[in-house]
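Entry 14. Structure prediction run on the chain below.
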Amino acid sequence: QSSTVAEMVDADFDDGHNGTDTHRISGSYVEFAERRVLPQFASLPAEEVQREHRRDGFEVGNADKIFESTYSHQTQKRGA
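Output returned:
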């Protein structure tokens, strides 16, 4: 799994006084995930590989790196 660095966007927030404050925040990002064939099905010919033969789910160990793409120290690098 990997992701791009989040795009910065302007967002309006309630200022608590019947108005709004605009702040730049991390917007969306694109995540890429490769679902490889599980080891027990590695000998299957490529044309026989089905969805159930591939990894499924979220790779918890990579989650922190993916979400870091929205952190300020990363998004500030976009303009550099």
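The chain has two helices and four strands.
Filed with the rest of this week's runs.
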